[in-house]
Specification:
alpha/beta, about 45% helix
């Protein structure tokens, strides 16, 4: 993907978050009215026109994963703030809306959104069109990993190297080569003890399941066709070894049973509980 163009997968994620607000009943897994407002009237009309598509089992499964990962991340962030973290870095932020709907407990945070310039340019345009302004405690960071490390880039944006940071890294690792993933994790691990990251990863295709019934496998050729192919896959035990080898002392996966108990048991809609483990929290 060129830096001049917005990520189509990031935009698709924004559409799914908006669809959650439009088609799924309260209490929702993720309350995100800003996602609807940022997309604008034309996009919302398109989503409503495609209502039958968004209500298919495949789209409900994908939407379930998208909103669950954000809800889990924000719950972990709240817990981190309560224990004193004051810096929040969103890696591959895309069209994330947390900065615009942040609760009172987040107001003391320094929030930094890191992404390609093309995606950020489109997001800035959406923000202006919707009548929003970037909150005073939030900013964009344009960091070119080909010319500087994540750590160097964050320091350039005045992130404190002496205070722990909470990182989110959602829907990104599968698009990067393993060495690039390692470089990011090393940069994250270079910050003080107590720093934390919530990230998602994609497990290898399971031949026993078969692509015909595994929607995540069906996504692979689709994202490849728009120039954003999957590159890296990890089994949970392999990515845990990687994280611990990088310096993380605690690695916790959001297991399907826990997701069901924490987020879906009181939910009255028809979003399914994700069957795969692909979300984790790691602490230095």
């Amino acid at each position: 993907m060129s830096d001049r163009n917005a990520s189509l997968t990031a935009l698709g994620t924004a559409y799914l978050r908006a669809a959650h607000q439009l088609f799924d009943p309260q209490p929702r897994i993720l309350e995100d009215p800003v996602a609807v407002q940022l997309l604008g009237p034309a996009a919302l009309q398109w989503i409503n026109d495609q209502a039958d598509l968004y209500k298919t089992s495949e789209q409900r499964s994908l939407r379930s994963h998208i909103v669950l990962r954000s809800r889990f991340t924000e719950d972990c962030l709240e817990a981190a703030v309560l224990r004193g973290i004051e810096q929040y870095v969103i890696l591959g932020a895309g069209f994330d809306t947390f900065a615009f709907r942040q609760p009172a407990w987040a107001h003391a945070l320094k929030i930094l959104e890191v992404d390609h310039s093309g995606t950020q340019t489109m997001k800035r345009s959406q923000i202006a069109a919707a009548g929003y302004v970037m909150p005073k405690n939030a900013d964009f960071a344009n960091i070119d990993f080909e010319h500087e490390s994540l750590r160097e880039g964050l320091l350039r944006y005045h992130v404190s190297p002496d205070e722990p940071i909470f990182f989110s890294w959602l829907g990104v690792t599968m698009y990067l080569k393993e060495e690039a993933i390692n470089e990011v994790l090393r940069s994250v691990a270079s910050f003080p003890e107590g720093s934390e990251i919530v990230l998602t990863f994609r497990q290898p295709p399971d031949p026993a399941v078969g692509s015909a019934t595994d929607f995540s496998s069906q996504l692979a050729p689709l994202v490849a066709s728009i120039g954003e192919p999957y590159v890296s896959y990890f089994k949970p035990e392999a990515i845990e070894v990687k994280l611990r080898g990088t310096g993380f002392s605690k690695v916790e996966f959001l297991l399907p049973a826990e997701a069901e108990e924490r987020y879906f048991r009181q939910y009255s809609g028809d979003l399914p509980v994700p069957k795969q483990t692909n979300i984790l929290r790691a602490v230095l």
